Amino acid sequence: LTPLNEDETIDVPSLESLLEWVLSFDVKGLFVAGTMGEGVALRDSERGILFKETVRIVNGRVPILASVSDNGTRRMLDNVDVAVEAKVDSVVATPRMAFPPRTPGETFRLFKAVAEHSKIPVWFYENPFLTPVTSTFESISEIMALPNVEGLKFSAPDFSLFARCARDLPGTPPCFNGNVPEIATSARIGGGAISGIGSMLPALCIRIFEAALAGQDDLAQKYQEAINASYAIYGGEGWPLWPSAQKHVMMRRGIIRTNISTEPFVRIGPDEAARIDQALEGIEDWVFNPPAS
Predict the structure, then answer these.
(1) Which DSSP string do the residues of 2-19 spell out, in sequence order?
(2) Per-residue pLDDT tens digits for 248-293
């Protein structure tokens, strides 16, 4: 998530506090300005500040992936330039977000342009919840075969397609699943996980992954059920309190200073705060500090 001030500028002290807290759990990388990070809603100037400050704070401790997703090729290329100047390690892009493809090959041409333009590796982000594109194995394979396309972040609901990508894409590029209920399953098939809720519950995400890799299926399921239960903070069907609820929890725990999200996301008032507190009642300490067994 991206900590913000009231005027939607980057809250740099909170960003530093959040990053140091997440890094303390021995995560293996960071993804900034993604879906949970409200990347496409940030002003261009603030996206650049977010990239530069993240690089400064992390100081080479883990790789940084930065989203450059936008609504057109030229805008994405401009975002790539900002990311390269900030010295992030890789850029991540979805198909363009507002316009469905009118002709075959539009998404491929977009990624070909991004891959050719970028001086750092590119990741393909498959997320049909945000873009009017649903990819097939063949279309993903075509994009992943482009020079400079390094990895796949997959947040589509079709886990069988993710499993096929992790198993069958030529060259076995890194494939990371973004669907929280499938963290354990992703680990078992050799995939990774990049989850928006990981910025709030990094320890629990790691516990799920480690238990699955160790063959401790019952324990992995116990952790998985706990992280699934935490989704109640978003207010139920349709997630009306997303992403502000996650910021509210992190503010309440003293990790960031405000719960401000980009307009027009909901602002958390007393009624919303009470719903979030109720959702975490009885599980908060456990999900933030999950036992090792």
Answers:
(1) --B-TTS-B-HHHHHHHH
(2) 999 999 999 999 999 999 999 999 999 999 999 999 999 999 998 7
225 exposure class (CB count in 10 Å sphere: 0-12, 13-18, 19+): exposed
The structure's pTM equals 0.95
CA 271 to chain centre: 28
How many CA atoms within 13 Å lie on the side-chain side of 262? 16
DSSP-H helix ranges across the chain: 12-23, 44-58, 73-86, 106-117, 137-144, 159-168, 183-188, 202-213, 217-230, 244-252, 270-280, 284-288
SS3 content of the chain, % helix, strand, coil (to 5): 50, 10, 40
Categorise residue 3: left if φ over 0, alpha if ψ from -120 to 50, beta otherwise.
Answer: beta
Kind of pairing, strands 149-154 and 192-193?
Answer: unpaired
Helix 244-252 and helix 270-280, axial crossing angle in degrees, nearest 10: 80
Cβ atoms of 13 and 257 closer than 8 Å = yes
CA 70 to mean position of chain CA atoms = 15
Phi-psi region of 245 (alpha: psi -120 to 50; beta: other; left: phi over 0): alpha
* β partners of residue 193: 177
> From CA 223, how far away is CA 287, in angstroms rounded?
8
Sheet holding 30-32, edge to edge: 30-32, 64-67, 90-93, 122-126, 149-154, 175-177, 192-193
